[in-house]
Specification:
11 strands, alpha+beta, about 190 residues, about 35% strand, 3 helices, 5-stranded mixed beta sheet
Length: about 190
């Protein structure tokens, strides 16, 4: 078993073991968030180079495959922003004009994990933290969709890591590969 596969297995076990952990009190989120970074933009700059890329079967109710491009993971203050381009691929012999919902592609909310410090990061939710209403992921992406062949910019906020980590592992769902060692940019 290779080291990366072994760490992937350790990461999956860590996600299961720590899924219920909160990691203490919620950080102060009184700072404003620059909506121009995440905003309501659903387009992806084709010149932006992904950190990682793979194609997998749609994990939700959508037919076909999805091209996944991890674009960035950036910490600003008490929050961390994940940006991912999701492109539902056309299906040969089928009408590709219908839009595909984002959660029909990924089926669940992505989770970030720090295997070294045994910490799991779940997406922030305006249901858990009502004072972040307006920039939680639910406001933008739960009902969003895109035509086949057109990238959709999926983004989500997480608590910033307490340790100054250089990379985290990203898990979308249990059928897609774990994206290991996603670089964390601290600003």
């Amino acid at each position: 078993m290779s080291g990366r596969v072994a760490w992937g297995a350790v990461g999956a076990a860590l996600l299961i073991a720590l899924a219920g952990c909160t990691g203490g009190p919620a950080p102060d989120r009184s700072a404003t968030v620059d909506r121009s970074v995440a905003g309501y933009v659903d387009q992806v700059d084709p010149a932006e180079q992904p950190i990682a890329e793979f194609t997998a079967d749609a994990a939700g109710d959508a037919d076909g495959q999805v091209k996944v491009q991890v674009l960035s993971l950036e910490v600003t203050g008490d929050v961390m922003l994940l940006r991912v381009a999701l492109t539902p691929l056309p299906i040969a012999g089928k009408d590709s004009s219908d839009d595909v919902g984002v959660f029909k592609m990924i089926a669940s909310q992505p989770v970030l994990s720090d295997v070294e410090h045994m910490v799991v990061y779940q997406q922030l939710s305006d249901q858990e933290y009502p004072y972040i209403k307006g920039w939680a992921v639910e406001d933008i992406t739960t009902s969003s969709s895109t035509p086949r062949g057109v990238p959709f910019l999926y983004w989500a906020y997480y608590d910033a890591p307490k340790d100054h980590v250089g990379q985290l592992d990203l898990t979308f769902n249990d059928t897609w590969p774990v994206v290991e060692d996603v670089p964390v940019v601290w600003s």
